[in-house]
Amino acid sequence: MNNKSSKWNIRNAIFKGLHSEPGISNNLAVLIGIFTGLTIVAYDLCLKYVEGVFWDGGNHTGQYYVIFIPAIGGLFIGIVTHLYKDLKRCNVAEVIEGTALHGGRIRIREAFREVLLSIVSISTGGSVGKEAPGILAGAGIGTIFAKAINAPDNRYRIFLGCGASGGIAAAFNAPLAGVVFVVEVILGELETRTFIPIVLSSVFATLVANLIFEVHPIEVSYYGLVDPIRESGLYLVLGILCGIASVILIRTLYLTNDVFQKLPVHPAFKPAIGGLFVGFIGYFYPQVRGIGYNVITEVLANNFTLQLLLILLVLKILAFSFTIGSGNAGGSIVPSMFVGAMLGGAYGTVVHELFPASTAVSGAYALVGMAATLAGTARAPLTSVLILFELTKDYNLILPLMFACVVSNSISNGLHEESIFTEVLKRRGITIRRGKEINVMESMLVSGNMVTDVHTLSMDNNAKDLLDLMQSSRHAGFPVLDESRKLRGIVTLEDMREKVNYGELDTKIRDIATLDPVVAYPDESLDIVLKRLAMMDIGRLPVVSRTDQNELLGIITRSDVVKSYNKEIVKNVHEKDIQK
């Protein structure tokens, strides 16, 4: 009887454990990991198939048409993006934003569209990585599971983290790195209730992708320290160089993005123009096309000359910046590692020439450079160390690896405050640290606080029409549209006072309005908008599309910003009272 009772108690305890909140989270984490691993496998198969369509597995060196293949991919991406412009572009930055500001929610359609676009971008020669699409795919799968069980915000964040960790783990065969990446970059914190499910997801994604289907990324050679004392100083210098290179990579990317934003070309053609630049570079140096795993492997095996390493270092930064900056799809993790491998290999070649008896060959420095540059761009030093450690399975270089990564991270952070992921959020006015926004106004976007039912005037209306609209609407300023319903300017009561004499009510709006007005974008924060209003000493901004600055989406005023801020403060105070 006692045995039966004991068995019943054990079964009952197991049943309760499986159906408790932690038990459900852990079970779903396993499923998220399995599905993420399968998705990475499917992604790899699709990538190989589409690459075969465009490149046919042959040697295309010296063939002029290779210049146009990345442009074809860019044109496809530009057209798809324009046709479905209601969907925002999505990357790791959006995952970070979703975790910090939207309760762990991301838009699933946007995430998976970006994954599909990245297949086209990479397979046509775009100089990007596939790890960020893997993170997006995993985050999307995690969100699907969270939606399926109608999970609260805290579990949305857990499941999104599970998917993201699985994406990194499966891509690099690095389950520990997957877990730490989520802690360092996505969630910004480590809690017991999130740690176990994220570990489970990462492990099962790795099991599926690498042990069952044998998806392997980079083949890494084994190196060690020849002279620990002297080489420690040399790796310190390498860490500094990698920190500087990280900042150059980030700034070049966003400078290129700014140039393409202002380019007077239809948005659908901008990715094609970027692809054309990449194709031109790739015609002379095909090593910069695509992901570049094979090129990194060659560098680690000491097969490149110093001249070629330096050339590829510069050209990879340019090719990557043209690819992403023009609007193509893909990730920044492997390009950062590629740049680090070239820099480390070049540096290692020089120091080995100078100190052949007390230094390892250049491949060792290329290996450390990979991790250090990734640490500088992503601001994830521990993730960078673990990725390389799990790739090599070797402790011999762990000390210089850690040393260089920490130094690079510090140098990069000192020279440029934001990572390659969070820079885009900062430009929208959102500052996120450790997975949380640090300013209420920075977390509130124009899109959720603007007025979309806007009173407008045409260029052919007159001053009397303006006065009538002011009286009926009780507003003091209105956007001005042309015959195609495109934004041309804005007209206010102040314009009326300055430009219309008494009795001249037939004066055309085109002669009164301020043309080419200062505008706001829907993805900007209220913090940025308020600063812009104050700096220009104006009371309202038309809200326009980023892809078409003449497409009027709404209007936001100084009073709208103040009202929204007050509401958010009251809401936050109320939520804190409930938690107490």
Give a quick precis of the structure.
The chain has helices at 2-19, 21-55, 69-83, 92-101, 108-123, 131-148, 153-172, 175-187, 192-212, 228-262, 270-284, 293-300, 306-325, 333-354, 362-378, 381-392, 398-415, 423-427, 463-473, 493-499, 526-536, 558-579; strands at 432-433, 436-437, 457-458, 477-481, 487-492, 514-515, 540-544, 552-557. The protein is mostly helical. The strands form 3 sheets. The chain has a 4-stranded mixed sheet with strand order 3-4-5-6. Strands 1-2 form a two-stranded antiparallel sheet. The chain has a two-stranded antiparallel ribbon with strand order 7-8.
Key traits:
single chain; 580 residues; mainly alpha; four-stranded mixed β-sheet; two-stranded antiparallel ribbon; globular
Report the structural category: mainly alpha
Tell me roughly what share of residues is in helical segments: 55-70%
Average residue pLDDT: 86
Give the low-confidence spans.
10-19, 573-580
Overall form = globular
Report on the structure:
The model is unreliable at 10-19 and 573-580 (pLDDT under 50). Strand 4 (477-481) and strand 5 (487-492) form a beta hairpin. Helix content is 64%, strand content 5%. It starts with a helix and ends with a helix. It is globular and about 90 Å long. Helix 7 (153-172) packs across helix 8 (175-187) and helix 10 (228-262) packs across helix 15 (362-378). The chain has 580 residues and is mainly alpha-helical. The strands form 3 sheets. It has a 4-stranded mixed β-sheet. Strands 1-2 form a two-stranded antiparallel sheet.
